[in-house]
Amino acid sequence: MTRMTRLTTGAVTFYVPEPVFSSIPSSTETPGTAASPARPLDRAKANEVLRYWLASLQQEEALSNRPRARQAGKGVPSVRVRVRVHMEAPSSGQEYFKLAQPDVQALLFERKPQQRPFDAELCGFFESWLSSQYRRSDDREQSHLLAFPVVHLPRGELAGILRCPVELRFLDAAGQPFDVPTRSQRRRNQYPPPPADALVLPIEANANKLPFFLDTRLLQQQLGVARESIDAMFTALRSAEEEVTETRMLRGVCELLESELRELESQPQKPAAASGEGAALLERITAAGARLLALRGGRAKIYPVAIVLDGSRSRASFYLQRELAALLEEQPESSWALDSCLGAYLTGWTPPGGRALQRALFPGPALSESQRHAAESTWGSRFSAVQGPPGTGKTTLILHLAAQAIVQQVEKLLDTEQMGAELTVVTSTNNRAVDNVLDALTAQSGEGLPLALRTGSQQVCEEVLAGILDRTRVWLETAVRVPVGERTDALARELEQFKACRSELQAAQAPRALAFEAESACAQLQVQLARVRAQLAIAQAAIGDEVMPPHVVVELRPALTRVHEKLEQLCDLSDKPPSLQALGALDRAFKSANKKLLSGFEALLERAGQVDVLGLPPALPPSTQPGVLMQVWSEALEAARERVEALGTELEARAIADECHKRIAELTQSLEALRTAEAEPPPHAAADETLERALFESAARVREAWAAVHAEGLSRVVGSALALARADRSLRRLWGDQEEVWKRLCQLFGVWGCTLLSLGNGFPAERSAIARLVVDEAGQCHPAYAVSGLLRCDSALIIGDVHQLEPVIDLEPDDDERVIAACKLSLSRSELQPYRVHNQALTSVQSLADRAARTRPRLTDHFRCQPEIIAISDALCAYGLRVHTPRQGPSVPLPFLPEPVSLLDVVGSQERLGGSWYNATEVELTSELLQALLAAGIDPTEVAVITPYRGQLEQLRKACLRAGITLERSGELLESDEPTPAAHRGVALGTVHRFQGGERSIVLFSSVVTRAASLGFLDDRANLLNVAVSRARHRLVALGSAAVLAQGKRTRLLTQAATPIMAHAFRRQLSLLRA
């Protein structure tokens, strides 16, 4: 019979068929109504999203994997070399081995496996591979990639212009596959002989996908190929009717590089040759690449060899990938709950929500009306999403939430005599967003006990976490010197003051609190009502239009089970080997069953309007062969059993529908009663803000007094944590081996900061490890990155802006299609669309959170930019902002920039550079303007220069160095392939993407573009221009061609808002000022 699953609706429990009701969550996992028209996913499909994200992360890291060159030997050996393999403790470090170009050609174009004898290089690679196998906890196959031709980059890394997956096998001396020794074999010191050869085999290409991955970053940054040219090549390949074979794609890449070469060498453009086989095309690609590198004058070199490397290596997202794999390996019903934050995020089911009081204020600006509404929604909801446009105080809001988290810790101490250990963790993709909050908390504590801990990567643990812990240790050692009695008395006094302050605030806020309770109760009922209606809709779909009297349903249900059991027995008899005896036994059994049970069941069905459901006995053919007759019986009985099962499904659905109708009536009545009694919450009283500030300040003093009382024990706790931060660069052993120490550390620090990808190095991967998670700048966070935080938390706030720049993802749409094909997903394209991750997808943590959150408050009070500046963003994105920024200019008068928004009209030309664009005239004018600002007395730290293009960034950096302008040096402003320098303060210079989240008094925006055809990157969507504009507080100066910018739908808004300045007039004014 159809597999049944238990479903509880109201006070009644039913067993319903899984195929019909698989998308209904159980009542112990109570989601609410969907926040978007899209139907929420069930658990199985949500797990497919996790599997897709894991594969995408692995693919992205594999394609960006650039191993460091190692001196393992010259060339590619063709003879066997005796080397020693360390099977017991294999070393890691050799990330690749080489294949000669002839071997690559035979592998790709003749589809011949290539056997490579062991030498020192292959031995090193094998040991790295074996070491990773020893560490693996699953049996998934390890993928490998072939990269060719190889470019040796100046920093010692190796990159391939093209990549494709290959299969790698290690063979023993007899040619048999090498088996990795199991854990038990290794414990018994039983190791097989090491392999003698490596066999590289081609993998059959998918006819619907491009046969190679193209390293577009390498082409743009090292070979100088424009993104537009690369896009045009991909478009041509995808639009062709014929299949894209290996040779055809190589021809396209060859034509791309040779066309670029002809343009650089000022050769006349001629039609690209369409001839050439694979081997010749590889040679042409290598030659064109070598010439392009030479023309650029860099130190990168290209070599006609290939490297085989690990395609599953995980670096930046190591912890996340491990946690995604763990979620998928666990039993589906135990890995995550539908009513959890992760469940809401993955499925789109909306958890219950409401509002609760924000009762504490952090020193500094008070909460605006929209900020307070967002805070109250956050405290009243398990999962909430807040839209935070630029300059609307997202950091301020988070600081006030942190203040209340500290108050709640102290309240637990007051009410239970145990300091609260629940954690609030502030997280984001980038360090700047986390540090904006943590730095403010640190500054507030001054010389006192730090208010928060900053953890993260191993580097952050060693450099930042250890410093905070050391400062805490010194504070505790100082506290120990005060007599115990004095410390105890101080704690008692502070607790009394806190209690009195809380009581006064509770009395003042009581009417508002009661209104919020009623509002939350209504919200809970609405969620339950929506859930029951969803159950009813599915039940009614299974019932159809036929009407069945309720009393007949009651009579049929118990009889149905007995009939099904009897039919099972008859089916067993019909499956016996055919004979006259078996046929007779079957006939007698049926007549007995029909007399005692089946005929009465048929009569019940007739009263219910169901005629001839069983169809028994069957019409037998005129045959005397037992086999023929028993086959007819077998088919008829099987059909009868299936019809009975279908009827059972219908009856269960009718029972659930009846119960749903009753439950809907009850919930509707309760909801109407609540709505009748519900009163609008009274507005927040400004007078309460004094008490809210006092409550936080009192809580901070109680916390310090409590820490002083327990200073001796806490010193040991902090000492243990400090030792691990320095030695392990992690606190993982603290929560794994010293749970009581970890708990005491959480009592001491209730607010932490950590980036999303480092959560695995900072907190245990358990639900409730984090009480409240706050994801800041969520609009620029990769959708998969939130999983690490959401699987750990009880409640979450996702805050960001979908109108700012999305996460940077280094996967082309074709790469993403390969991932989808490899995953063999059952999700439809429409179901998968919101979760897609590639460089043209518009998905982020914020966009997914918006689907699941019950309400999405928007911050509408703006405090950063001058009104003329933020008006551009408001026009671009329709934020509906209320601007509270006072009229104010830069720190010193600037007569050459009298207005908040200026456009320096530049007559120049955009030129190609490193696959990007630059404008030499804009570079020159930007440098002159920058020097004028500094000469006028502007501090370098008040100025930022931003541009959309890396080529312009390079030229601006050189111009600043020539002019002796000090530039800010920080990891946040670096491009992904630049080494991290020591921090240095100065003028901020970076791309718009890198400067997102930053702000300066004066921002110079170099637009570069002088051709209307190139406006698309700036003008297609509002996001990039919105970010660029909203970085400036007092002065925004755009440099560019006014005539070209005025042609764009969105860039036109910038030209309309700006005061135009002609370049010659600007220079004349600067000359007069200098004179």
Describe, in plain words, how this protein is organized in 3D:
There is one protein chain. The longest helix is centred in the middle third of the chain and has 60 residues, at 484-543. The protein is built from 37 helices and 26 strands. The protein has 1075 residues and is an alpha/beta fold. Helix 18 (550-574) packs antiparallel against helix 20. The strands form six sheets. Strands 3, 4, 5, 6, 7, 8, 9 and 10 form an eight-stranded antiparallel sheet that branches. The protein has a six-stranded parallel sheet with strand order 11-16-15-12-14-13, with helices on both faces.
Question: Which terms would index this structure?
Answer:
1075 residues, alpha/beta, globular, disordered N terminus
Number of DSSP-assigned strands: 26
Shape: globular
Beta-strand percentage?
A: 5-15%
Question: In terms of per-residue confidence, which ranges show pLDDT below 50 for 5 or more consecutive residues?
Answer: 1-37, 73-79, 976-982
In this structure, how is the largest beta sheet organized? 8 strands, antiparallel
- What structural category arises from helix and sheet content? alpha/beta
User: What proportion of the residues is helical, as a percent range?
Assistant: 40-55%
How much is the radius of gyration in Å? 35 Å
N-C termini distance: 96 Å
What is the arithmetic mean of pLDDT? 86
Count of DSSP helices?
A: 37
